[in-house]
Amino acid sequence: MGIDIKTIGKVLQEAGKIELYQQVLDMQAKLNDFQDANYDLKKEIRKLKEKLETKNKLEFKSNAYWMSEKDQKVGPFCSRCMDTDGKLIRMHKDSNNDYFQCPTCKNGIGTRKLGAVVKTNKRLDFTV
Length: 128
Hints:
alpha+beta, coiled coil, rod-shaped
């Protein structure tokens, strides 16, 4: 059963305590700033946890990153984009299926190093 800041401010204003009323308004503004900062920090923590979770699923092999999903390796993902920009960019196959290239930075890897091709979910992924 507490009294909120708005009620206190209204009572002080009606009582002619303008200086105290101004202090209450300043406190309210600071409280709002703290709430905004707290929200931003929680949002940043959530983003960092998601990045860490993704990074923990990655394995570096054959000059690319691969993600473990349900006992399969998914990828390849560009090592340059991940290492320098923190972005998980799936590399695309060329028309001959013998080369993967990043659509963002144009980094590439040959498929001979990658092993057998397997079909999963109507797309070709390479097992490692």
